[in-house]
C-alpha cells in the first residue's frame, strides 16, 4: 500500500480469500487497486444518491485499468432491492456486450453491494466483483462474508448466493457525506460485535461513542477493522452458514420482522437490528442466560447511538408470521440468536409465550 | 442399489461429488433414493407435458421421505426459460413457507433442470436439489456438470450459477413417451462425445444407431453412461469452465446462434447443436485440422439420426452479432471449438471470412 495509514484485514477463505482495505482517500490511491483483475470492461453499479458524489472519482481511477468503464445507476433504497432492479445490471452488461471477464464495482450501501454481488454471481455464471461500500453499515457488515441477495415480496434476502468479492475498499472519506441517521444505523452493527463476541470491544465502543458519532477517522477505522475482524473470524469458520455464522444475526430475527412488517424502507436495516438486539438481549435474560444489568447496558448504548429501543406496534400473530419465514427457521420453528453470557452467542428456539412477553415489554403504547 | 441392472456413474467433485444412476424403473425404486437428504418438505418442479405423465409416481415415492411433497408445474419450452417463470418456483416455496433444508426435484427436460437447479442455487442462497431428467438430451448432457441458468432477452443462459445436484436419476422408462424429434435431439449430444473425445464411441454409435432410434434400453443405457463418463471426466478437470470444459460446447457457438436467431423453441437445442457440429467440423477442415472425409462422416451420422445438416437462412451480420454474445467470446473475439484431429477438441478464433464461407456452404437456398 502506498498509504501507510491504510489498514488491511485479510479474509482467509482458501482460493476465495480477499482483503478489506480501510483508509482515507482509497478511491484516489492507485495502489489500493493493485492486483485486482484487469479486463476490457468494468461496470460501476451505484445508485442515484451515491453516483453523483463518487462515481466520477472511481471511474477516473478505473479508466487507467480498463478499456471501457461503464456505469449503471439504480434507484436508491431497500424497496428497490428486487429482481426488476437487478435486471437493469444484466441489461447494461448484455447491452454493451460485456464478456465473462468484466469486473463489477459495487459503489454504494448494503443494497447496492448485495445486488451487485448477486449480479456478479449470476452474470454468465460468475464474474469478478469489488465492493466499494459507501455507508458505515456496509463497511462493517454487508460487504464482508459473501452474502448477496435480492428481496422477494414474501421475504427479505430470500433469493441470493454466497459469492466472495475480489477486494473490499472502505474509503473513510465517503462517510463524510453520510446522513446522521445512516451513521447511527451503521453503529448498530458495530455494537452487535460486542455482546456476541468481544466484551472488551463493547467497552471500547462505549468509551468512544462520542468520537464515532463525530466521525473521527481514527475511531471509525478501528471500529470498522475490529468489526470486520470478528466477522471474518466467524465467516472463516462457517462460510456457508451451517451453524456458528448464524450468531452474526443477533437482533436480526426481530429486526427483519420489524423491517418487513413496516414495509421495506420505513425502518433502516440497522434500526431494525438495533431494536432487535434489545429484544434479543431481553429474551436472553428471560431465558436466564444474562442478568437485567446486561440488558439495560445494551439498551442504554443503543439509545445513546441514536437508535430505536422501542418496537413498533404490530399484532402478535403478524410478528410470528414474519419471524417464521426467517432463513434460520427449520420445520416452522423459529430459532433466535441469544446471548449465552456476555460476549458469547448461541442459537436456540424459545417458547412463543416468552417471545410475546418480550415483544410486549418493548412495544411503544 | 436393489436393481442390479442399474448403472452408476460417480461424479468426483470433492465435497460436491454425486452419482448419476441410469436404469429402468428408478422412480419406483426406493433404493435409488437412499442417502438423499430428508427434510420436512420436498418440491417437485415439472412442466405441463411431463407432470401429467410422471409427477404422481415421483410424488408417491417422495411421500415416504418427506412430510410435505409440493409441486409446481411450469409452462413447457425454451421460450419460458426466463426469470418470470423461475419466480413461480420461488413463489411456491415462499408461499408454502419452505425452509432452507427443502429438497427440490427437477422432473423434466433440460429447461426444467436448468431452471430448478438455478432456483435451488438461489433460494435462501442454496438448497439441495435432485435431477430427474425426462429427455435423452437432459440425461446425457444438461443434468451433468452443474450448469444452471435462465435466458435473458439478449442471450441464452446468460443468468445462472454453477451448482451441483445431490444425485441424477435417469429413468430409462421415461424415454418411452419422448417424441421422436426429441429423441433425435438427444442423440446430437451423444454423437458430440465421439469427435471431441472418443472415436471408438463414435464407431459404437454408428453401429448402434438403429437400436438407439428404436429405443433399445441396453443401447440407450450404454450411450447415456458413456456420454456422462466423458462429460464427468472433462468437468472434473475444469468445473468452472476455465478452459478445457469449453470443448463440451462443440457445435454450440453456431448452434446457439441458430436457436437465438430463429427464436427460442423453433429449433430444439439438440437440432441447433447437430447442425452446428457439421459447421464446426467443416471449419476444422478449412483450418487444416481434419480431412473432408471426417466432415462427411459427421454430416452423414447427423442426418441418419434424423437431425438437420443445413443451417437456416440468416443475414451474415446477424450470425456474427449472435455469435459475439457467446459466453466463450473474449474482448469481442469469437472463439470456436474445433476438432484438432479426430477425437480431440481445441478452442480457437477463426477469420471472419472463413467462418462466413462455412456458413454459406451449409445454408439451404
UniProtKB/TrEMBL annotation, chains A, B:
CC cofactor: NAD(+); Co(2+); Zn(2+)
Every 3-dehydroquinate synthase N-terminal domain range: 72-184
Gene3D superfamilies given in the database record: 3.40.50.1970, Dehydroquinate synthase-like - alpha domain
Binding site for Zn(2+): 189, 252, 269
Predominant subcellular localization, coarse grouping: cytoplasm
CDD domains, per database record: DHQS
Annotated SUPFAM superfamilies: Dehydroquinate synthase-like
Swiss-Prot/TrEMBL keywords: Amino-acid biosynthesis, Aromatic amino acid biosynthesis, Cobalt, Cytoplasm, Lyase, Metal-binding, NAD, Nucleotide-binding, Zinc
Subcellular location: Cytoplasm
Protein name: 3-dehydroquinate synthase
Organism per entry: Pseudaquabacterium inlustre
Gene: aroB
Amino acid at each position: 500500500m502506498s498509504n501507510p495509514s491504510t489498514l488491511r484485514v485479510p479474509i482467509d477463505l482458501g482460493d476465495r480469500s480477499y482483503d478489506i482495505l480501510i483508509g482515507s482517500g482509497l478511491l484516489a490511491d492507485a495502489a489500493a487497486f493493485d492486483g485486482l483483475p484487469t479486463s476490457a470492461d468494468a461496470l460501476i453499479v451505484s445508485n442515484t444518491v451515491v453516483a453523483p458524489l463518487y462515481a466520477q472519482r472511481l471511474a477516473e481511477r478505473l479508466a487507467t485499468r480498463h478499456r471501457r468503464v461503464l456505469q449503471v445507476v439504480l434507484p436508491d433504497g431497500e424497496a428497490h432491492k428486487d429482481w426488476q432492479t437487478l435486471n437493469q445490471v444484466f441489461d447494461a452488461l448484455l447491452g454493451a456486450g460485456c464478456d465473462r471477464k468484466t469486473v463489477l464495482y459495487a459503489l454504494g450501501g448494503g443494497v447496492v453491494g448485495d445486488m451487485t454481488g448477486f449480479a456478479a454471481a449470476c452474470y454468465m455464471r460468475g464474474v469478478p466483483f469489488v465492493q466499494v461500500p459507501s455507508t458505515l453499515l456496509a463497511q462493517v457488515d454487508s460487504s464482508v462474508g459473501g452474502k448477496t441477495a435480492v428481496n422477494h415480496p414474501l421475504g427479505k434476502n430470500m433469493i441470493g448466493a454466497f459469492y466472495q468479492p475480489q477486494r473490499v475498499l472502505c474509503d473513510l472519506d465517503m462517510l463524510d457525506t453520510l446522513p446522521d441517521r445512516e451513521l447511527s444505523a451503521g453503529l448498530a452493527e458495530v455494537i452487535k460485535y460486542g455482546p456476541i463476541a468481544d466484551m472488551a470491544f463493547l467497552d471500547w465502543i462505549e468509551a468512544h461513542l462520542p468520537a464515532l458519532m463525530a466521525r473521527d477517522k481514527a475511531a471509525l477505522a478501528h471500529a470498522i477493522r475490529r468489526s470486520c475482524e470478528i466477522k471474518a473470524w466467524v465467516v472463516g469458520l462457517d462460510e456457508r452458514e451451517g451453524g456458528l455464522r448464524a450468531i452474526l444475526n443477533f437482533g436480526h430475527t426481530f429486526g427483519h420482522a420489524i423491517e418487513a412488517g413496516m414495509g421495506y424502507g420505513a425502518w433502516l436495516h440497522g434500526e431494525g437490528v438495533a431494536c432487535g438486539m434489545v429484544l434479543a438481549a431481553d429474551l436472553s435474560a428471560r431465558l436466564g442466560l444474562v442478568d437485567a444489568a446486561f440488558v439495560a447496558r445494551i439498551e442504554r448504548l443503543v439509545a445513546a447511538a441514536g437508535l430505536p429501543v422501542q418496537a413498533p406496534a404490530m399484532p402478535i400473530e403478524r410478528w410470528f408470521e414474519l419471524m417464521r419465514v426467517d432463513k434460520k427457521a427449520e420445520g416452522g420453528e423459529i430459532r433466535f440468536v441469544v446471548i449465552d453470557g456476555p460476549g458469547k452467542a448461541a442459537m436456540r428456539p424459545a417458547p412463543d409465550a416468552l417471545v410475546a412477553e418480550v415483544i410486549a415489554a418493548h412495544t411503544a403504547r
